[in-house]
Amino acid sequence: MKFGTTATVTLTRDAVGDITLHVLDEGPGIPEASLQEVLQPFYRLEDSRNRDTGGTGLGLAIAAQLVSQMDGALRLANRPQGGLDASVRLGRGGIVS
């Protein structure tokens, strides 16, 4: 949400009980070549240094690590109309009732 103005959040559960959370923003997205790199600690896009957003490059890395510890997956994808789709998928094993 640092780079987008608004976001839509959806939560779905499939037939086997896996849960997927999508955060869809309307920001500039992330260059395709950097979609995996931004999940690494301290990685920052060059353009982000010119913004007033600050940050250390840890947010997505921490999120990815936490989701991984819950046997889930964090995925980033650019939306065709612009913006980013950040999704977290948790299987039944990673969900606490």
Automatic annotation (TrEMBL):
<protein>
    <recommendedName>
        <fullName>histidine kinase</fullName>
        <ecNumber>2.7.13.3</ecNumber>
    </recommendedName>
</protein>
<dbReference type="GO" id="GO:0016020">
    <property type="term" value="C:membrane"/>
</dbReference>
<keyword id="KW-1133">Transmembrane helix</keyword>
<dbReference type="Pfam" id="PF02518">
    <property type="entry name" value="HATPase_c"/>
</dbReference>
<feature type="domain" description="Histidine kinase">
    <location>
        <begin position="1"/>
        <end position="94"/>
    </location>
</feature>
<dbReference type="GO" id="GO:0004673">
    <property type="term" value="F:protein histidine kinase activity"/>
</dbReference>
<keyword id="KW-0597">Phosphoprotein</keyword>
<dbReference type="InterPro" id="IPR036890">
    <property type="entry name" value="HATPase_C_sf"/>
</dbReference>
<dbReference type="InterPro" id="IPR005467">
    <property type="entry name" value="His_kinase_dom"/>
</dbReference>
<keyword id="KW-0808">Transferase</keyword>
<dbReference type="InterPro" id="IPR004358">
    <property type="entry name" value="Sig_transdc_His_kin-like_C"/>
</dbReference>
<dbReference type="InterPro" id="IPR050428">
    <property type="entry name" value="TCS_sensor_his_kinase"/>
</dbReference>
<keyword id="KW-0472">Membrane</keyword>
<keyword id="KW-0418">Kinase</keyword>
<keyword id="KW-0812">Transmembrane</keyword>
<dbReference type="InterPro" id="IPR003594">
    <property type="entry name" value="HATPase_dom"/>
</dbReference>
